Amino acid sequence: MKKGILKSVSAMLLVSTVMAGCTTNSDGTQNAANENQGGANDGKKSNVTINLATVNNPDMTIMQKLAPKFTEETGIGVNFIVLPENELRNKLTTAVGMGAGTYDLATIGTFEVPHWGDNKWLEPLDPYFEKMDASTKKEYNRDDIMKPIVNALSSKSGLYALPFYAESTMMFYRKDLFEAKGLTMPKNPTWDQVYEMAVKLNEPAKGVTGVCMRGLPGWGQNMFIFTQMLHTFGGKWFDMNWNPQFSSPEMKEALQFYKKLITDAGEPSPNTTGYTECLNLMSTGKAAMWVDATVSGGTLMSGDSQVKDKIGYALAPIKKKPNFGAIGGWSLAMMTSSKQKDAAFKFLTWSTSQKYIEMVGNEFGWERAPSGTRISTYENPKYLAAAPFAKITLDSINNADYEKPAIDPVPYKSSGWVSIPEYQEIGDQVGQEFGAYLAGTKSLDQMLKDSQNFTVNVMKRGGYLK
User: Fold this and answer.
1) Is 303 left (phi over 0), alpha (psi -120 to 50) or beta?
2) CA 383, CA 368: separation in Å to the nearest integer?
3) CA 319 from chain center: how many Å?
4) Which of 74, 75, 105, 439 has its CA 20 to 30 A from that of 172?
5) Is residue 438 domain-resident?
6) Measured between alpha carbons, how far is 111 from 189 in angstroms, rounded to an integer?
7) pTM to 2 decimal places
8) Which of 336, 357, 388 lies at the terminal end of a domain, its last residue?
9) Would the pLDDT of 8 be above 90?
10) Closest CA relative to residue 333, chosen from 40, 62, 95, 12
């Protein structure tokens, strides 16, 4: 890592715009603005209480409901501090930067884990696994966690987080609309095929858009999907010397295609459409196709979704690179400033265990079970019966090339973002530039020029370029 980069992590995270889903995670979750505290040991007397800072998405709400079972088993209370994503990251950064010990555990996105670990804000987990007795170690079965997820949550120093749920990217489509048009979705479609199908399916007079794509500016919104598209088009953000690649033909081609797809067959207001808005369009029957986070499969199958029995699934589209997809999701990590590390590790392993997944499935429905983390989940007949998206989700995660995201060699990891702290600032600004291009207020050439100049300046400031 370049000199001075770790020193910039704190400042970068404090001013960053949140990845509205993926996110670090790719699901785009946005939450209420008020902090909410709730203890799993309410009304119970515990020997120890740990503080867990978390986002308020449906999976974490289920965790909060099940936490009293952990307290009954261990006598350890769990105090949940529920925050919106941007406030969560800012408060965590402030707390761990000061070594305050305010939080013992936190939900953390895939993007942050290696940076925060290398900055010694997260407790390395390998020593705690080594201290486990043989029976507990066997019951937890660390080898059951999918290897691509483990790699994404590790750095050279070891493992720093455990996945609560993990995701990649996939294609969701309306089987009934395809049948009515005489169309067939390939298991592994190309972007050119997606464009052709989207144009045929686009019927704005009937309130149906051919495809929904994130257009809302942000490193975790339009840039999250675009970065994956860029890589499969044969492009890259940087060469091996960290020179930005906005002048490359692949970059230009990917940007032009993204705009063409949205303009000819996409949603009417792309600059205000992010993950949540696309999910709403798809679940209310107003979109024929959607390329986004695999975790959405459970949401489209549950709740008040109007398309529960009408959704088909395929791998995310490709172009030149034969795979497409990122590794994202929410994980749990232990703060180095925690004063209750042993108790925190017990909850960390309890809430990411096979036993916990079975509790969720039995009490809340198997389609709601945490996805994308354990091999055993995808061998469980109850989960497979309740989750028709399971096989494509598994294939999508295994298909995502976290270590080598581009066709050409690149100095970064992850196909959904660039794995350096500065990318949040770069991705946000380029996302705004892309938004202006989508809206027609800036030409493509001007967008590329402005993005190149901005990125060069940031990379010089970070010590990557002279």
Assistant:
1) left
2) 9
3) 22
4) 439
5) yes
6) 27
7) 0.84
8) 388
9) no
10) 95
In this predicted structure, what is the pLDDT of residue 101? 76
CA-only gyration radius of the chain, Å? 22
The answer on 46 and 88 residing in a single domain is yes
**Which domain range does residue 466 map to?**
169-324+399-466
Say how many domains are in the chain.
Answer: 2
For residues 42-78, one letter each, b for 16 or more C-beta atoms within 10 angstroms of the residue's C-beta and e for the rest, the string is eeeebebbbbbbbbbbbbbebbbebbbebbeebebbb
**pLDDT value for 59:** 86
Average pLDDT score over residue span 339-345: 96
pLDDT-derived band at 323, boundaries 50, 70, 90 = confident
167/169 Cα distance (integer angstroms): 7
Cα atoms in the 13 Å half-sphere on the side-chain side of 167: 30
Chain segment 357-397, per-residue pLDDT in tens: 999 999 999 988 999 999 999 999 999 999 999 999 999 99
What is the pLDDT of the chain when averaged over all its residues? 88
State the first-to-last Cα distance of the chain, in angstroms, to the nearest integer.
15
Rounded to 5 degrees, what are φ and ψ at 180? -65, -30
Beta bridge partners of 45: none
Residue at 276: amino acid letter = T
Residue 315's Cα: distance from chain center in Å? 17
